[in-house]
Amino acid sequence: MSDDVSDLVLVQRVQAGEKAAFDLLVRKYQHRVVKLVMRYMRQPADAEDVAQEAFIKAYRALPQFRGESAFYTWLYRIAINTAKNAIVSRARSPVEYDLDLQNTEESYDLQSRLADHDTPEALVLAEEIRTVVNQAMDALPEDLRTAIVLRELDGQSYEAIAATMDCPVGTVRSRIFRAREAIDRRLLQVFDGGLGRVEELA
Amino acid sequence: MNETERDSQLSALFDGELAADPAALVTRRLLKDPALRATWGRYALIGAVLRQEPLLQPAGGRADLADRVRQSLLAEPELAPVAPPPVFAQPRAGGWRRGLTGAALAASVAAVALLVLRWQMPVAEVPLAAQPSSPSGAVVVANVAPQAASGVLPEPVVSSSVEDVAHSYTTPRQAAPSGARLAAHLVDYVVAHSDYASPGVRLSSLSAQMSGSMDPAENTVEMTKDEVGARR
Predict the structure, then answer these.
(1) SS3 B127
(2) Distance from A9 to chain B by nearest Cα, in Å?
(3) Domain region containing B141
(4) Which of A20, A31, A181 lies at the smallest CB-CB distance from B56?
């Protein structure tokens, strides 16, 4: 996968003092970072907190980033270490002593309930988005579906996809864009229907 | 440029498949246009759904993650300008004594480092690279000295050179510059694909090894030299 160029352009804008460019990097990678951090954190809300901290650390360290590795690789390292540090610090947290150590299962349930930020509306919205995207995928012509699957699920470059699909790179670019456009049109209907604000979900 | 072509370029930019100049141009538009930014966010959302990643949403009175990060950054000071590459002072007339002192200091540091390493490692495990006459030993000193001289902290990734230094004593390298570049590409590749791989594959020995090898690099933000030594 080669996100290097666009990420580097955004990184340079941030380094030049344009904070809005960092927001685009956050929106691009937030889902992947939270999924990564969830390997370490039990609660989704904790994972989001750690991811937030990791992004802020990354922002502060950006002046030292010189693009010698991909931005996501750099971010990945920060996220993993932030998660590990969070585990250590939470293990030392006084809150832990308040839990009933004789009944850890009950304590875990209590912790789960306290950390549960998901509202029924949020769960419905997430489910609606997943359904709409998957239905839109099913409705795509085969060549568009294959192209976007190779890109988004396998992380292949356009050049590799072109080799796999035996077509020019320009065709791959067009197919991926048309696939996204078709799915996006369906997504917009969901958001226009009042189920949620896209800025809050993306 | 019509709207379709504009969005097509945005899609290619999102995938990192635009050349540098068009990428800079589309990025400028993206930063100015809220509609394009919303589209960018939805492209990210589509990918997240396809990869079955958690969908981040505002709930329980909390804003979503990106908004919380943005809010936090409002209070942050502007980033300091990126430091220029270290510039080494030109030798001045009569400065040979200073140069000699510096060389002697560097040689002393190298000697002490080698002695400590030899002391820490079992004799049988000390490879050629750690011998005083080894070129790799010289590379280690060369890696450390400019950073110390410039006073500029290495970036987390660059600080993997600390990691490289550690490894250079156990894994002699053939050609350091191209090898380092290749290693960086390999790490990028494994990290990028670890997100797409199935859990079984992700937990393969290679993936686990890469994950493990990455930890100290970022930890250099917080890790002390002692911890680096302990890991070694």
Answers:
(1) coil
(2) 6
(3) 123-231
(4) A31
